[in-house]
Amino acid sequence: MNSILRNLAVIFVMMIGFEAGSLAQNSVASYTSFIDYQKTFARPSEALKRKEDTLMKQFEAKRLTYPAKYIYIRSFKYDSQLEVWVKNEIKEPFRLFKTYKVCALAGSLGPKRMRDDYQVPEGFYYINEFNPKSNYYLSLGLNYPNASDRMLSDTYQPGGDIYIHGSCVTVGCIPLTDNQIDELYILAAHAKDMGQDFIPVHIFPIRYNVKRSVAFLNNLTKDDIELKRFSSRLEGAFDYFEKYHQLPVIMTDQKGEYLVDEVPVKTIKDPNAVKKATVKHKERNITTLANSVHQWPQFPGGGEAFMEYLKKLGSEMSSYLPDGVKKAFVQVEFVVDTDGTPVNFKVLKGSNEGYNDELIERMEKMPTWQPALLNDKPVAKKMVQTVTIEAF
């Protein structure tokens, strides 16, 4: 298992390094270095003049070599912190350079699963964009949605444009002050200049070694078994880094869940499993699901028609909302089978006994789709969709 994960990880890192570096390579082709290219923009150029000497002195005070060849960024949502770890040799452990205070937090704990939910993602990402002309001063783009997000988030509207940026405001990103993003942008630019195309950014819900934070997460997840399972996968990566100060090998399984090499998956039982299983819905025994396809399933009339169908469904379901609730987001998983029939519906998030079964029963009457195609042959494909139930 470990050797397979490591081999796959090498391929994965090579692929994402190519993806992240190819755009920059085209942009800086006429410059001697990535740093020189950044100096052609006013904000990075001014930041380098203001901060380079200060950063050198800060590194010297901590007996670190400036600039760092490798950096690692990890952020903690509940604790409102962003750490920068550095090293100059691949085999040596990372050392903490600095911890920044995150200015603001949008949304709540838990992963981002749809567009406009104001959630900061949680999971394992890398910097794929340097924006020297950001609307928020300077910004570093993250590769959301990643492979896991693409499987677990809304199929049609997963969202995007997630950044670490300045200006100290947010609607779902990680905001710092302009003074802080100056430093982080320079450190990341230097690392990229020295060959680190893959600059990892890990976003955790909490610090798993802080009792107050753990207590908050435990209370939040006591009735949300999916969020508890998701958070436990992230905790495995946190624990690995705390122990070794090296990055763990992280992969995504066929269900979109993270696998952390050398860290066993915790078994978390759902106390309501028996209760939930009392209501039966139509199911098919589908043995093979396609992960990648050449053509996605097509709803009759296309994507816009599907959005209209969901909007109408959400409006019709509004009478099932609990008293005092005007709006609910329900994430539903289903499979479009090889004959185009949507089957095996399951509520993933936003569950409520007052409307779960009714929603699934209505969605089971959805018209037949055009099935997904792989090598011109129909295949079964899992879909994840968010239904907005709203009283107008």
Break the fold down into its secondary structure elements and pairings:
Blueprint: H1 2-27, H2 34-38, H3 42-61, E1 70-76, E2 81-87, E3 95-101, E4 123-134, E5 137-142, H4 147-152, E6 163-165, E7 174-175, H5 178-193, E8 200-204, H6 211-221, H7 225-244, E9 250-252, E10 258-260, H8 273-276, H9 303-316, E11 327-336, E12 342-349, H10 356-363, E13 372-374, E14 377-379, E15 381-390
Parallel strand pairs: 1-8, 6-7
Antiparallel strand pairs: 1-2, 2-3, 4-5, 4-8, 5-6, 9-10, 11-12, 11-15, 13-14
Entry keywords:
L,D-transpeptidase catalytic domain-like, 33% helix, Fusion Protein Consisting Of Minor Coat Protein, Glycine Rich Linker, Tola, And A His Tag, Chain: A, Domain 2, 15 strands, 392 residues, three-stranded antiparallel sheet, alpha+beta, disordered N terminus
| Tally of structural domains | 2
CATH class category name of the largest domain: Mainly Beta
**Rg to the nearest angstrom?**
23 Å
Task: Give the name of the CATH architecture of the largest domain.
Answer: Beta Barrel
Q: Please, what is the average pLDDT?
A: 86
- Please count the beta strands (DSSP E, at least 2 residues each): 15
What is the CA-CA span between the terminal residues? Answer: 52 Å
The CATH homologous superfamily of the largest domain is named: L,D-transpeptidase catalytic domain-like
How many H/I helices? 10
Largest sheet: 8 strands, mixed
| Strand residue content | 15-25%
Classify the secondary structure makeup into a structural class: alpha+beta
Name the poorly predicted regions: 1-26, 274-278
What is the overall shape? elongated
Q: Tell me roughly what share of residues is in helical segments.
A: 25-40%
CATH topology of the largest domain: L,D-transpeptidase catalytic domain-like
Q: Order of SSEs, N→C?
A: HHHEEEEEHEEHEHHEEHHEEHEEE
